[in-house]
Amino acid sequence: MNGKCDILIVYLYVDDLIITGNCVKMFNDFKKEMTNEFEMTDIGLMSYYLGIEVKQRDDGIFISQEAYTKEVLKRFNMENCNPISIPIEVEKKLSRHVKEGPIDRTLFRSLVGSLRYLTCTRPDILYAVGYISRYMENPTTYHFKVAKRILRYIKGTIDLGIFYPASAAFTWTSKKQPIVTLSTCEAEYVAVTSTVCHAIWLRSLLKELSFIQDESTQIYVDNKSAITLAKNPVFHDRSKHIDTRYHFIRESIAKKEVQVKFVKSKDQVANIFTKPLASKSYRVDWE
């Protein structure tokens, strides 16, 4: 890194290098040094890599998997299927105990694996794919139909992807909580604490890159009780059974590293990662 604004990032995959950054001089100097040291071939700007298409623009980068999506649809004979508006029904409840015949495990796992790779640029299918992934051990034709429904959804949204604006950092994750909670408030509180820990880590990482954040990181929560619990330094009956480490959020708020704000559930964009949504709510601002 040279100065406060110049960054060079190098990705290594087996014997391939991907170089990116915001300083042309650093980029050219590194490329020249590597070419002199090793026998390498410059294939130019990256536009397609491991099934991911990259379109560089003046205001940022757009990544998608349109070509890979078409390959997946063709592989499972769904290239001519009728598209639908949501990947999974809102009231859909899957179970291991269904009265339908078994399906070939290899076929089902191949479909799920292909869909999981698509989540690299399609977080809108993350919940649905994670849901059907629970039934790979003994899948049935019922589970296979649910998985193919996701293919029908991506058939109608084949050109979607993620747009990264210039000079913007973006990270997301979705996983089950490691503990059993006794209420919705407690579940939200634990989730917020986990988010705060990740935010603090990102702030520290950006600081190492000389991008210091003076303002508090905004954490949006759609549960007022969890917000009240996070801001209240006094332990009482509602929180005395919660593990002490989950109260880390209170210290972060006191230091003004983060700020917890309320957001209505209908405006909580993170819901797309955690639950099935109706078609009118299934909106993502891709650009």
TrEMBL record:
<dbReference type="InterPro" id="IPR043502">
    <property type="entry name" value="DNA/RNA_pol_sf"/>
</dbReference>
<dbReference type="Pfam" id="PF07727">
    <property type="entry name" value="RVT_2"/>
</dbReference>
<feature type="domain" description="Reverse transcriptase Ty1/copia-type">
    <location>
        <begin position="5"/>
        <end position="89"/>
    </location>
</feature>
<protein>
    <recommendedName>
        <fullName>Reverse transcriptase Ty1/copia-type domain-containing protein</fullName>
    </recommendedName>
</protein>
<dbReference type="InterPro" id="IPR013103">
    <property type="entry name" value="RVT_2"/>
</dbReference>
